[in-house]
Write a structure and sequence with these properties.
Radius of gyration: 13 Å
Helix content: 40-55%
Largest sheet: 2 strands, antiparallel
Oligomer: single chain
Shape: globular
Amino acid sequence: MAEARLRQPRRLRLRLFFAAAQLVTTGHRRILRLAGRRPWTDVITDALDRLHALPNHG
Protein backbone atom coordinates (compact mmCIF):
# COMPACT_ATOMS: atom_id res chain seq x y z
CA MET A 1 0.00 0.00 0.00
CA ALA A 2 2.77 2.46 0.86
CA GLU A 3 4.38 1.66 -2.47
CA ALA A 4 1.18 2.64 -4.29
CA ARG A 5 1.18 6.07 -2.65
CA LEU A 6 4.56 6.81 -4.15
CA ARG A 7 3.31 6.22 -7.67
CA GLN A 8 2.33 9.03 -9.97
CA PRO A 9 -1.37 9.99 -10.02
CA ARG A 10 -1.56 9.40 -13.79
CA ARG A 11 -0.43 5.80 -13.39
CA LEU A 12 -2.98 5.16 -10.63
CA ARG A 13 -5.71 6.71 -12.76
CA LEU A 14 -4.83 4.44 -15.67
CA ARG A 15 -4.84 1.40 -13.37
CA LEU A 16 -8.32 2.36 -12.20
CA PHE A 17 -9.62 2.79 -15.75
CA PHE A 18 -8.22 -0.56 -16.86
CA ALA A 19 -9.30 -2.55 -13.77
CA ALA A 20 -11.67 -5.41 -14.51
CA ALA A 21 -14.99 -4.34 -13.01
CA GLN A 22 -18.74 -4.25 -13.55
CA LEU A 23 -21.07 -1.42 -12.61
CA VAL A 24 -24.33 -3.00 -11.45
CA THR A 25 -27.55 -1.13 -10.69
CA THR A 26 -29.90 -2.86 -8.27
CA GLY A 27 -32.52 -1.48 -5.91
CA HIS A 28 -31.76 2.13 -6.89
CA ARG A 29 -28.11 1.62 -5.89
CA ARG A 30 -25.01 1.40 -8.02
CA ILE A 31 -22.45 -1.20 -7.03
CA LEU A 32 -18.95 -1.43 -8.47
CA ARG A 33 -17.84 -5.05 -8.57
CA LEU A 34 -14.09 -5.42 -8.95
CA ALA A 35 -12.44 -8.68 -9.96
CA GLY A 36 -10.82 -9.99 -6.79
CA ARG A 37 -7.79 -11.68 -8.30
CA ARG A 38 -6.54 -8.79 -10.41
CA PRO A 39 -3.51 -6.67 -9.52
CA TRP A 40 -4.29 -3.33 -7.86
CA THR A 41 -7.74 -4.43 -6.69
CA ASP A 42 -6.76 -4.04 -3.03
CA VAL A 43 -5.37 -0.54 -3.64
CA ILE A 44 -8.55 0.53 -5.43
CA THR A 45 -10.85 -0.88 -2.74
CA ASP A 46 -8.79 0.74 0.03
CA ALA A 47 -9.05 4.11 -1.73
CA LEU A 48 -12.81 3.71 -2.19
CA ASP A 49 -13.20 2.79 1.51
CA ARG A 50 -11.29 5.92 2.52
CA LEU A 51 -13.52 8.04 0.28
CA HIS A 52 -16.64 6.43 1.73
CA ALA A 53 -15.44 7.18 5.28
CA LEU A 54 -15.24 10.94 4.62
CA PRO A 55 -18.02 12.96 6.25
CA ASN A 56 -20.88 14.06 4.02
CA HIS A 57 -21.67 17.71 4.60
CA GLY A 58 -24.31 17.84 1.88
